[in-house]
Each structure stands twice: as structure tokens, then as C-alpha cells.
From TrEMBL:
Location of the region described as Disordered in the Swiss-Prot/TrEMBL record: 427-447
All residue ranges annotated as the HTH cro/C1-type domain in the record: 14-67
Comp. bias (Low complexity): 431-441
Protein name per Swiss-Prot or TrEMBL: Tetratricopeptide repeat protein
SMART domains: HTH_XRE (SM00530), TPR (SM00028)
Organism of origin: Streptomyces broussonetiae
Domain of life: Bacteria
Pfam families referenced in this protein's UniProt entry, alphabetically: HTH_3 (PF01381), TPR_16 (PF13432)
Amino acid sequence: MRERDDPTVVGRRVQHLRNQRGLTQRQLAEPAYTPAYISTVEAGRVRASDEALRHIAGRLGVAFEELAVGRPAHLATDLRLRLTEAQRVLADGRAEEAAAQYTSLLAEAERHGLGCEQASALLGLGECALETGELVGAREFFERAEACVADESLPVRVPAVRGRAVSHYLAGELRYAVYLLESALDELNRGGLHDPDALLLLYASIIGPYMDMGAHARAAQAAEFALALAPQTGDQALLARMHRSVARTLLAEGRLAEADASLAKAAELYRRLCLRTELANCHWMRGYVCAQNGELERAEGELRQAYAMLSETRAALYRSQAAVELADVLHRLGKSVEAAQLLQGVLGDFSSERGAVHAAAAHRLLGIIAEDARDTEAAEEHYVRALSLLERAGAAGDLADLCRLLGDLLRRTGRTEAALDAYRTGLGHRTAPGTTTLGPAPAQPPL
């Protein structure tokens, strides 16, 4: 609860409620206090103790909180009920509608000084912005949410930390994203804060940055940890709806503590529903590992599952990233036409500030497909565009490989000096993937 209002404001509130109920100062004071004490409270000349204010609240038939800060007792619970409604809308994939609800709820929480509810609304707005690809706005929302819970334990802060990291990752800032996620994982595991939900959220979120940095062993391990931590769930949406309905009933009956407990269960279930995006990334990672091992049919199945799950959640940017990985496997299976169509369909979802690494991967693969079709002009154009995107993101391992492809193309078309320049550029980026950007791996959870 926020700090109590000024004594003058509290006094006016007591007087208004007493007159509204037709009570005298003596009736309000008895048996513990005197009419003179009530008079000084109403005049704002004394700051009533918590004990005295609780006595007065009981005589007036209102909650202590309503006297102290002018907020009806059921307001916070009602606000949490509406926050779970917004979570449901977001879980259904209606990010813009959810954002409008969260914006209204944030304003109300700020007006009444409800810090936890402000943080929840800001987290929701951040998730909505991630879903719609508004990365700068998302980052700002997550930073504000983290500030609201700065004094809480790390598991409470993890959703905001994870949101910040993902917004940096999608903007192409890979190393900083990994730093944020690994730092949180290390602190959780070394400090014995083995919160399964927090760990699942962090491990699932770090897979993408690891993959793009070439740290494939770490990505594979993170995926296995995430899948091992994933809760065995039934129909989460049905359970969440049940808890929401129960909360409404309890709230109507004035049973606020029980309503709050039911709402907390509903909110947790909706949060887990939103984890569908993260778990889809785990299938994506498994598909990548299968492809690396030459199990292309199994890889195609895993990646198609990831793509379908992401399409259901309407997570456009994530879906487009999974499409690039799927297109690579399709090409290797000889389905180049389908691969090219898939890539052309998602290129519009990317930019240099939004999914740059996967945009580069799409152009690289389109270049290879164009080379196979002997369209060297189109292939070179795709390679050059990919090179520009990767240089901005700092994906060293991918840059070296792309420079080799471009150099080979230039050499085959008789431009030897240009080919040599491309090879030299590639050699400058040639390092063991991940070793120049990642320190020791974070401590592992006790699975």
C-alpha cells in the first residue's frame, strides 16, 4: 500500500463518512477513544495511529485502506481481475486489443499508487509490443516494469529482465541480450533461487541469441533444460477461465483474500499460455540440432511444429525467424521452390533493427537458391544485402561464411580482385563461433 495520505485529507474523509452514516463524534469514538480525539483527527491536527484508524474504520464499516489512502478495499482486487482479462486477450494472440486494455489499467494503477499492478500492466504492454515488433517501445516498458519491482527478489524481476533481453536480441544486440540472460541464470542457480518458472523463461529465451552467435552447444543445452522444466499441463485456458469466474463470485461476496488467490492462479495459467511462444523456440532448436546431425526429415517435423505454434500465437517476428530455419531444411531436402516462397513471404517482417540476423540468413539462402538456378546477379544482390545486415549485428561466424560464398561467386564470374577482398574480409571475422563474445557458461539448475 502507498504511504498514508496527509492527516488533513484523512480527517476530512473521516468526517464525511461519519456524517454520511449519521454518527456523532462520541458514537464514533466509543469505547476506546474520546469525542475530543475524534475532533482533532477530523480537523487534521493529529496523525491518527494505525490502531486508532483501524478502530474508526471498523465503526464506519469501511476498510482501513479506504480511510488511509482513499482507496476502496476491493479496488486492487478488481484491477487484478481486469489484468487477467488482458492476459487472456494477449494469450489469444490479440496483442493490439490487449495493449489498449493494459494502457487503461496502467493509468488506473498509477492514479491509485498500486505499484505491483503498475508493474503487471507494464509487463503486459512490453509483451504486446514484442508481439507486434515495436522493439524500442517494448524495451521502455520492460525497463519501467523492472524499476517498479526493483526491491523484489530476482524471480519476481525475471519477466522484466527477460523482456529487456529479448527486445535487445530482436534488435540485433546479441551480446548484451546474452549478458542479461546469463547473469540472471547464474544468480538464480548459484544463489539457490531455483524457481522453475523463472528458469524456464530464461533458458527458453536464451536459445535464439546463442544460435545466432554460433554458440550451438550452449543453445542445445538450454533447450534441453527448458523442455525438462516445462510444466506438464492440461487445458490451461479452461483452468484459467474457471479461476477467473470463481474470483468474480468471491469478489461479489466480499471475500477479497480468496478472490486474490484465485486471480493469482488464473494469472499464472495465462502466463504459462504465453510461454507457448518460448516452447515453440525449443522445438525450433531441436529442429536445428537434427539438421546439423543430418536428420533432415526429423528436423523438418520439429521446425514445422515450431512454425505452426508461432503462427497460432500470431508472434509475427518469431514465426518469420522459424520460417527461415525451416526454409534452410527444405532447401537441403530438395524443396527449393517451397523454401524460396517461404522466405519471400517473411522478408517484409525483417529490417536492420528488427530480426537482422534472420533477415541476413534469408538473403543468404535466397542467394544460394539463385546460384543453383544460375542467376548470379540475383545471388550477388542477396549476398551483399546479407553482408550489410550481419556487419551491423556483429554475427562473426555467419559473416565469415557469407564472405566465402560471395568470394566464390565473384571468382567464378571472373572478378578475382573483388573475390580476394571478400575472402580477406571473411578471414578478419573467422573465429571459433562464440568464443570471443561469451565467458564461462552460467551455473546449471538441479534437474
